[in-house]
Design brief:
single chain, 512 residues, disordered N terminus, two-stranded antiparallel ribbon, mainly alpha, Ribonucleotide Reductase Protein R1, domain 1, Fumarase C, Chain A, domain 2, elongated, 2 domains
């Protein structure tokens, strides 16, 4: 293999490339380790999502390029294109699921520099009788765009199933801990109490919104359809002898075969890339939700209130053997950046498309769409795994409440004192002084909060001494949090999971 060096001379590069090889022992695919492999494929994404964006799925089978060409020919024949015979269709159909000769495709593409034509010609070589009518009247995007939309829709369905499993796990967790009081935080400073289950419902609400968003996209996605070179359908109109009705009927049949009940009326050479922006925007939203939850768990792990699962043989640090690093949540946060970034790529791509189409969308889309789906698939597997094994430490949570609750209870103390006949302003000043002194003990001496002891020692507060402990009951500070959890699970989570009830039993085993 030769390359030009900086002086324009030919130099030979001592590089060898190995193709995928079938492993008879594992029954799977082994790849040589002399080239870059995306970690999303090797470490993180599920086999289902990896297959969805594989070459075999894209090019072969009933819903790949070969399947598209068959459905196109079938629709054209059914609506009066006499040069397409039953024998041609039978030949195309019989080779839909044949293994693709990727070496031969690569040889053709190296010569003609066109991936669609290379695959078209390679298919024609195994279907010689149908060779002359494959992709008749179609432009490349009649092939590529329609298949990409089918794959994206299937990908969104997989994401919805994964979201449902996460929602189900968090729902069970919320039910279990709906009445366990814990410190709420605003500005990452202790605030009014909530419950552990209520916080889980906050995470879950984000996932429910993502699920609803994706379901809407799936239900409202329109296929590009058969539009020709600049979207005018001129080539199809000519093929059908100027009959507009037959053009529309063939397109409708073609779309139905791909599982779509509607197509875009208006396109350029491609479907509007705003579709990609919408889809990757929805995936970006899922990533936001995962990252938010994972970040919260990392903060709570720092405070030793809640931790992600940690296996018996797991190593937290190569140097500090005692550590229990939240590596799953850290990985989820890290991978979440990919879908969020790819959402930006999609928006840029749509915004700079020239007129009816420019090809600068193609290379970026090959990366952005697949990587966004694979990354979302990976982070949902991670966060499901985390949700299935969350560890709660009630004793630590109770201690942290006891450190802060006396300060939060001061308003109740004032109200009870005034009800007993005290002057509100005088009471406020005395509690302010005691609170400041107790705060100094905590911050400057590192000792426990002793505000209650100070109030018990002050005769001024004698009217409420007997009630101080009662006034500091954490459950009296959580409001309707337990009831909110019940309502949320019954009215929102339960109905949302009903369509996915047969998918909820799948566990999330991580590769690493």
């Amino acid at each position: 293999m030769f390359f030009d060096n900086i002086h324009g001379n030919k130099v030979e590069a001592n590089v060898t490339f190995q193709l995928w090889e079938i492993s008879t022992e594992t029954g799977g695919l082994d790849m040589a380790k002399d080239r870059y492999e995306s970690p999303l494929g090797g470490r993180y994404a599920s086999p289902q999502m990896l297959f969805l964006f594989s070459d075999d799925r894209k090019f072969g089978g009933e819903m790949g390029w070969r399947g598209i060409w068959y459905q196109l020919a079938l629709a054209e024949r059914d609506h009066g294109v006499d040069c397409i015979t039953e024998g041609m269709l039978d030949e195309m159909l019989s080779h839909l699921n044949d293994p693709i000769d990727y070496v031969r495709v690569a040889q053709i593409e190296k010569k003609n520099r066109h991936d669609v034509m290379a695959n078209n010609l390679a298919y024609g070589e195994v279907c010689p009788g149908a060779k002359g009518i494959i992709a008749l009247a179609a432009t490349s995007c009649d092939t590529t765009d329609n298949v990409e939309q089918v794959i994206m829709r299937e990908g969104m369905i997989l994401v919805c199933k994964a979201l449902a499993r996460v929602i189900a796990r968090l729902g069970r967790f919320a039910e279990q801990y709906k009445s366990l009081p814990t410190l709420g935080y605003t500005h990452y400073q202790p605030a009014s109490l909530i419950t552990v289950g209520k916080r889980a419902c906050m995470w879950n609400q984000n996932y429910l919104m993502d699920l609803q968003h994706l379901q809407w996209l799936i239900g409202n996605m329109r296929l590009r359809g058969l539009k020709g070179a600049t979207g005018t359908q001129a080539s199809y109109l000519e093929l059908f002898g100027g009959d507009h009705g037959r053009v529309l009927a063939a397109e409708k049949q073609f779309a139905a075969a791909l599982g779509f009940n509607s197509v875009f009326t208006i396109t350029g050479q491609t479907y509007t890339r705003k579709v990609d922006s919408w889809v990757l925007g929805a995936l970006s939203s899922v990533a936001e939700s995962v990252c938010k939850m994972a970040m919260d768990i990392r903060l709570l792990a720092h405070d030793k209130e809640i931790e992600e699962p940690f296996e018996s043989g797991q190593i937290g640090s190569s140097a500090m053997a005692y550590k229990r690093n939240p590596m799953r949540c850290e990985r989820a946060c890290s991978l979440s950046r990919i879908p969020m970034a790819m959402g930006v790529v999609a928006r840029i791509t749509e915004s700079i498309q020239f007129l009816e189409r420019s090809l600068d969308d193609s290379a970026a889309r090959r990366i952005a769409i697949a990587e966004a789906f694979l990354a979302v698939d990976a982070i949902l597997r991670i966060i499901q795994n985390v949700s299935e094994g969350l560890v709660v430490y009630p004793a630590v949570i109770a201690r942290r409440i006891s450190d802060e609750l006396p300060f939060m209870a001061t308003e109740k103390f004032i109200i009870e004192m005034v009800s007993a006949g005290a002057d509100r302003q005088e009471c406020h000043e005395k509690i302010r002084v005691h609170s400041q002194e107790a705060g100094a003990v905590v911050k400057q001496q590192g000792k426990p909060n002793d505000l209650l002891e100070r109030l018990l020692a002050d005769p001024y507060f004698a009217p409420i001494h007997i009630r101080l402990e009662e006034l500091c009951d954490p459950m009296s500070y959580v409001g309707r949090a337990p009831e909110q959890v019940d309502q949320f699970l019954e009215e929102e989570v339960k109905p949302a999971l009903e369509p996915y009830k047969d998918e909820l039993g799948v566990t999330a085993e991580l590769s690493v």
